[in-house]
Write a structure and sequence with these properties.
Blueprint lengths: L1 H34 L4 H5 L5 H11 L9 H10 L4 H13 L2 H10 L2 H23 L13 H8 L6 H4 L16 H37 L4 H5 L3 H12 L6 H13 L4 H13 L2 H10 L2 H29 L3 H4 L9 H37 L1
Helix pairs in contact: 1-6, 1-10, 1-18, 3-5, 3-7, 4-5, 5-7, 5-14, 6-7, 6-13, 7-14, 7-16, 8-15, 10-13, 10-18, 12-14, 12-16, 13-14, 14-16, 15-16
């Protein structure tokens, strides 16, 4: 019973620290949805040059989509003429970082990691995009018409219509669907705290519970005693992160808890980069749609760049004389307790509402499909 209470207390502590910054991150994500035209990405993703790859990485970086949720968006871009390199860069930069995950990184870890994380994500995306452009077109198959049913069958782990590529609760703003600024802002916030929160809400809670379990049950010097080697700990985080389904936001409290147990900053960065961008489902769907060659470039680029930036992160912290373990969560601790508690309660209510509405949408979609088939 004591262990259970300790686990619940640690989980609640992590959730309280993260909640205000998560709400802010989703609010900014709603603003991006409202202010960025829906066809902007497609217009700038054509070609096989460096510029299109950079655009894919930079425009994808602030969007808070999971590795599963980004697949339909990337496939839509590819269908509309986006180059293989730009599409690959978009698929990596988008799940590895986002305004919500950066806010939580700032709250739970420190400012240095908050800066390193997006830089590493964009660099990895550019490297992968340029490598993808070197592949002959014959190694990258055209998207098949049966793509959507594949995603619906194999996209386990995603909650909303965003991941399944259909049955969205709101139509995107586009030149064909004009609206006033106030209407666009309302639609953006509905999307952020509706479909988007339904996508990551459950996994965010699971990430917080995992962080609570690590804090409660793992010995304080676990990594110092068992994985003390610099490269060994980073390789272990890479092997754990690649097949694991974890979004950028939910990976952050897990990484923060591991840092408290002695994990090095570089190994934590490896997990923060590799975990959100890959999982078994994403790799399987990619192999069946974009081909094994592009999938291999995707995974290899993430693995190699994660390890390189992990080594670089350790050198930066050492050169600055900055002890990451001494400042973990210092930003969140400056917030008043009433704000943390109010934000936590509000976030729980919003997650439950988003998940409930997502189930209603899926039920309506399923009934519509059954009616159409009949």
């Amino acid at each position: 019973m004591d262990l259970l209470l300790k686990f619940l207390a640690e989980s609640w502590h992590v959730f309280r620290q993260a909640a205000p910054f998560l709400l802010f991150g989703f609010f900014v994500a709603g603003l991006l949805r409202a202010l960025v035209p829906a066809d902007l990405l497609v217009r700038h993703f054509g070609g096989r040059g460096l510029v299109s790859v950079l655009k894919g990485a930079l425009l994808g970086a602030p969007l808070p989509l999971c590795s599963c949720g980004v697949l339909p968006a990337a496939m839509g871009l590819r269908r509309q003429g986006a180059g293989a390199g730009a599409t690959t860069a978009f698929m990596i930069a988008t799940p590895e970082t986002g305004v919500d995950s950066l806010a939580v990184t700032y709250a739970l870890i420190d400012p240095i990691m908050t800066v390193l994380r997006p830089i590493a994500a964009v660099f990895t995306a550019v490297v992968a995009g340029l490598a993808a452009n070197l592949l002959p077109e014959r190694f990258i198959p055209a998207l098949r018409p049966a793509l959507r049913p594949v995603l619906k069958a194999e996209g386990a782990g995603c909650a909303s219509g965003c991941c399944f590529g259909g049955c969205a609760t709101s139509a995107p703003i586009s030149p064909a669907n004009p609206a006033s600024m106030s209407a666009r802002l309302r639609e953006g916030q509905r999307h952020a705290f509706g479909e988007m929160l339904a996508d990551v809400g459950l996994w965010l809670v699971l990430g917080v519970l995992a962080a609570g379990a690590i804090s409660a049950f793992m010995p304080p010097s676990f990594f110092l005693d068992t994985l003390s080697g610099e490269f060994t700990s980073m390789l272990a985080m890479l092997l754990v992160g690649v097949p694991m389904y974890v979004c950028a936001s939910s990976s952050t409290p897990i990484a923060a808890s591991l840092l408290l147990k002695g994990l090095s900053p570089g190994a934590a960065l490896v997990f923060l980069l590799a975990g959100p961008a890959t999982n078994a489902t994403t790799i399987t769907v990619m192999a069946r749609t974009f081909g094994p060659a592009l999938t291999g470039v995707y995974v290899a680029s993430i693995a190699a760049c994660s390890l390189v930036f992990g080594l670089l992160a350790n050198r930066i912290y050492a050169a600055l004389g900055f002890d990451i373990h001494a400042v973990l969560g210092s930003v969140a601790e400056t917030l008043p307790a009433w704000l943390e508690i109010a934000s936590s309660v509000l976030l729980v209510v919003l997650i439950l509402r988003a998940l409930l509405r997502s189930r209603q949408v899926h039920r309506a979609c399923a009934q519509g499909v059954a009616t159409t088939d009949a």
